[in-house]
Amino acid sequence: MAYHSLLQKQISQFLTSDEESNPAIVKLLTAINNSYSSFERDRKITEHAFDVSEQEYQRATKDLQEQNDIRKQSISKLKEAIRALDPSAPQQFADDNDDLIDIISFLEKQILKTKQLEQDLINAKEVAEKAALAKSEFLSVMSHEIRTPLNAIIGTIMLLQYQDLAPDQRELLNVMEISSENLLSLINDVLDFSKLEEGKILFAERNINILHFLKNIKMANQVKAEEKRNRIKITYDDDIPEFLVCDDVRLGQILNNLISNAVKFTKDGTITIRVELKANNKQDVDLMFSIEDTGIGIPKEKQHLIFERFTQANNNITREFGGSGLGLTIIRRLLQLQGSEIFIDSELGVGSKFYFTLKFKKSTSEIREESKQSGNENKPDLSGKTILLVEDVEFNVMVAQRMLRNWNAEVDLAENGAIAVEKVKQNHYDLILMDIQMPVMDGYTATSNIRKLNKQIPIIALTASVITTDIEAKAVQIGMNGCLSKPFNPNTLYNIIVNNIKEQ
């Protein structure tokens, strides 16, 4: 039997061959050999375990050192980030302090301050929203109160245009019409400014003769121009299509503002209204409008200021020439909402040129300006149609009623929404013209009640406020078929009535 090397040496030293072969001695030696082998195995296991533990210790020590370095770098970066947020703010921790507790405590205080600031901002936002709502409501009321009497004035002028008038009377009436429309544009400038800032202006689409439109604008500004011995002339590109589609009210606001400015700042000179065809596509055209004058001009260093609201190029301009400094701001915003921009070329003492380019759709139908002269030629006709006019202002009733009866329509009246609902229960109407703001029951509520009785009858909203996306959306939601802003053009009123009656 092979014994452990150490045991074998001891046997050779202390036992003879006979003793070694003795069964009792063999049994003892076997037991001792097993102990030696077990001890050797335990020793190797212990040494291996020690080696492994030492390696783990070295690795853990290295990882701990790396984590400590990362912690120090993180604390340093965190301090730098905190200082970068507000370099002027006093810091509540030392540069050589690596205790995270101090930094966390500082951050907790900053979070509390941030939450308080956030709450203050929420409160300020609520106050601002309430102020904006109050402003919007005020503008809505003022719009209604100012535009309502103006509606009667413009409506009366339009009714007179259907009378048999002498040429000089008709010319004076045209001047009155254009001047009243300019007044309406001026009122719109003031009342619509907040809507312009919010981009909530709704652009209408109407077929117009651009050249005829420009001649009307020239006529409206002619009197003021002659007072300052100025001449207004139109230079028009003959290649421009005769009829185009655009919002003539908004285009009128832009051009009237620019032309009136040119007249105001020019004396013994010339104002040129120039329209050029820049692009002629299949469905639309690009027109460049230029308003040029030989007036006082604007210094180069002041030209960027004139488009700021309530700003003039010179403090003396308001005293000498008047004006609010709002017109060019409105022009710029109206153009921006249509994807355009206004530019200026000007030289002090020589004159100014304001120009912009707009895209116009081509008219798909033959449109002709309705004749305003006496006689029955092309006169609108609503014979056999019964219309319910829901309106509480006496002058507005008179104007609308005369227009409708002049077109041979049967007209029934209701002075508020509640009466209108009862009349619909008892009578048949081809169309309802519904004022929105009325006592007892407003137009929205009346329309909602009528729709429970009759879902087919066309209902057109009449409003003295400027029609915005909000007003139009609410009208459609309630069940109205369209909106018409007062004062309205007779042609527009007639067309919306005819189109809605045909759709029944």
Structural account:
The chain is α/β, with parallel strands linked by helices. It has 15 helices and twelve strands. The protein has helices spanning 5-14, 17-21, 23-85, 100-160, 167-191, 193-198, 210-227, 248-264, 315-321, 327-337, 394-406, 417-426, 443-453, 469-478, 490-502, and strands spanning 206-209, 231-236, 243-246, 270-280, 284-293, 342-347, 351-362, 386-390, 410-414, 431-435, 459-463, 482-485. The strands form two sheets. Strands 1, 2, 3, 4, 5, 6 and 7 form a seven-stranded mixed beta sheet that branches. A five-stranded parallel beta sheet has the order 9-8-10-11-12, with helices on both faces. Strand 6 and strand 7 form a beta hairpin. Helix 4 (100-160) packs antiparallel against helix 5, helix 5 (167-191) packs across helix 8 and helix 8 runs antiparallel to helix 10 (327-337). The protein is elongated and about 165 Å long. 24% of the residues are buried. Mean pLDDT is 82; it is low at 315-325 and 367-377.
Features:
single chain, 504 residues, alpha/beta, seven-stranded mixed sheet, five-stranded parallel sheet, 12 strands, elongated
Short summary:
The protein is α/β, with parallel strands linked by helices. It has 15 helices and 12 strands. The longest helix has 63 residues, at 23-85.
**What's the end-to-end separation, in Å?**
121 Å
Query: Main β-sheet: number of strands, strand sense, barrel status?
Result: 7 strands, mixed
Order of helices and strands: HHHHHHEHEEHEEHHEEEHEHEHEHEH
- What is the molecular shape? elongated
Given as residue ranges, the uncertain stretches (5+ residues, pLDDT < 50) are 315-325, 367-377
Work out the strand percent. Answer: 15-25%
**Rg from Cα:** 45 Å
User: By helix and strand content, what is the structural category?
Assistant: alpha/beta
